[in-house]
Amino acid sequence: MAPKKPSRVKARQPRGFVDRTSADLLAQERMLGIIRRVYETYGFEPVETPFFEYTDALGKFLPDSDRPNEGVFSLQDDDEEWLSLRYDLTAPLARHVAENFEDLPKPYRSYRAGYVFRNEKPGPGRFRQFMQFDADIVGAPNVSADAEMAMMMADTMEALGIERGQYVIRVNNRKVLDGILDAIGLEGDAPRRLTVLRALDKFDKFGAEGVRLLLGPGRLDEGGGKGDFTKGAELPDEAITRVLRIFELADASGEARLDAVRAAFGGHPVVDEGLGELDQIRAFAVAAGYGDERVLIDPSVVRGLEYYTGPVFEAELLFDVVNEKGQKVQFGSVGGGGRYDGLVSRFMSTPVPATGFSIGVSRLQTALKNLGRLGNESLPGPVVVTVMDRDRMADYQRMATLLRRELNGEGRPLVPVEVFQGNPKQFGKQLQYADRRGAPVVVIQGGDEKAAGKVQVKDLVEGKRLAAGIEDNAEWREARAGQELVDEADLVAAVRRILDRHAGRS
């Protein structure tokens, strides 16, 4: 009986995860460099935390803390402790600060970029792994730190080429929202409060009528299939009408929005405290030159995470795009954050105030592509040293090393150099490879050239141009388009002349 052939493993990508191309990664790196530069001008310094944390360190702020593997990807280590892939970058920072509290300067300004993981159902634009770029100030109790966060986000948008009028940083205060919930009779009713906040957070998606249903009896999704009904908060009509007033100020100034909330809910101590902090943030921003067109007080902003305790922020892009359904919609949020004075304190006996902001890197990168601010980034094509004689590989490596060293001097743009490492038998295949890699130059040295101390340098760009006017193959071979024979000692200079010519340098 013939042995059974081993089955091949099927190549398949896990749902909710994506492969990323060179162009995507290079564009992302350029974008991150710009953001990093802005953060550093504000005095923030980098820190990195592990991908894994102890599950209890991530705490009750997970989607479902009763089941360690719901919402997060978790495993048990060899001493049966639960570990989870980080769900965001804020909870790991809180653990880091608490663990190193005595050694860190206070306030502690830090930034970090990294992947986070969500064990949730993937969908269009919703991934299980994605990158965030956060900045946080830990140990700053004053709302001037929150104002600084909002202003830094405005600077970040503009540094990335997003012009004024194409973005706005919206600022609210969870104290305002919490006070409003108290005022409509939900004091102490944690489940319904959360239902209301989640409903308000969907205003951009469902509009006033959709949110009214979510605040009331509930909402049946379009299509009306089984399981599409979302239970509402079951608020009375009068309470729903009062709450929805905070969304009726679309074209009003920040000051007018504050006045409207005061008119509807003023006199409640928590609402008044939150409005007072928003007044201060607006005053700080305006004094620094950040008017409503950049930093806008907006009582309709709702941040979904439960750990926010004060001011909350949303970076919103205002230009239109076409969604997956072919509808023209506003691009929307690319980041958010807020004050989380209770998160670090979970690990300590003393209160530790903190505020921070998180940018959704992939979403912001998509926005920049829509605006034409990020092109198809790519590394320059390499100079390819071809292989005419396998036994002389050491000679080819020596030439490549010389070219790498001499062409990549300080202040000069990157010039990759590689030796062809495929099968060298068919020389035409090597030229095809170089062409596919976008190589501007190939270096050719056979046995005859080596004996004569010579080397062929072929300008592929010029060769294509010249070859376009040659119809006869014999004529093409005779012309040796774009190719010159130089002394070995002149190899670097000859390659540099070609590269400079194509770059427009003399």
Automatic annotation (TrEMBL):
Keywords annotated in UniProt: Aminoacyl-tRNA synthetase, ATP-binding, Cytoplasm, Ligase, Nucleotide-binding, Protein biosynthesis
Record flagged with keyword rRNA-binding: no
All copies of domain Aminoacyl-transfer RNA synthetases class-II family profile, residue ranges: 29-380
PROSITE patterns according to UniProt: AA_TRNA_LIGASE_II
Residue numbers binding L-histidine: D88, L89, T90, R118, Q132, D136, R303, Y307, Y308
Pfam families: HGTP_anticodon (PF03129), tRNA-synt_His (PF13393)
SUPFAM superfamilies tied to this protein: Class II aaRS ABD-related (SSF52954), Class II aaRS and biotin synthetases (SSF55681)
Protein's name in the database: Histidine--tRNA ligase
